[in-house]
From TrEMBL:
GO molecular function, one term: protein-N(PI)-phosphohistidine-sugar phosphotransferase activity
UniProt keyword terms in alphabetical order: Transferase
Origin: domain of life: Bacteria
PROSITE patterns in alphabetical order: PTS_EIIB_TYPE_2
Pfam families, alphabetized: PTS_IIB (PF02302)
GO biological process, one term: phosphoenolpyruvate-dependent sugar phosphotransferase system
Segments traversing the membrane: none
Protein name: PTS system ascorbate-specific transporter subunits IICB
InterPro entries: PTS_EIIB-like_sf, PTS_EIIB_2, PTS_EIIB_2/3
PTS EIIB type-2 domain span: 1-93
Length: 98
C-alpha cells in the first residue's frame, strides 16, 4: 500500500483538511485500498514517510528536498487538488477502470 502525506506548518489544520479531501478523491477513483493518507508537520517529515507529499505553495521551498512533492496554490481548491493528484496517480486510476 502506498502512502500520501499532506504537510503543513503544524501538522494539524490545513494538512488534515487536505487529507480529508484526498480520501474523497481516492474513493471516487476506487483507490482507497491501494493508498493510505496521513498528515504531518513540516519539521517532522522525511522522505521515508510517504510515496507522495502534498503541501501548500508557502512551504514549497522548505520541502523541495522531497521527491514526488505536489504543491497546491490553494488548499481549498478541490479541482486543483484533483487535477494534480490525478496526474501523479494516473496509472493506478486507469488500471482501476479497465
Amino acid at each position: 500500500m502506498k502512502t500520501i502525506m499532506t504537510v503543513c506548518g503544524t501538522g494539524l489544520g490545513s494538512s488534515f483538511f487536505v487529507e480529508i479531501n484526498i480520501g474523497t478523491l481516492l474513493q471516487k477513483w476506487g483507490l482507497q485500498d491501494k493508498y493510505k493518507t496521513t498528515h504531518g508537520a513540516v519539521f517532522e517529515v522525511s522522505e521515508e514517510d510517504a510515496d507522495y507529499f502534498i503541501t501548500a505553495k508557502d512551504l514549497e521551498d522548505t520541502l523541495s528536498y522531497l521527491s514526488n512533492l505536489i504543491v497546491l496554490d490553494s488548499i481549498v481548491d478541490m479541482d486543483e487538488l484533483e487535477h494534480k493528484l490525478y496526474d501523479k496517480l494516473k496509472a493506478d486510476i486507469e488500471e482501476t477502470f479497465e
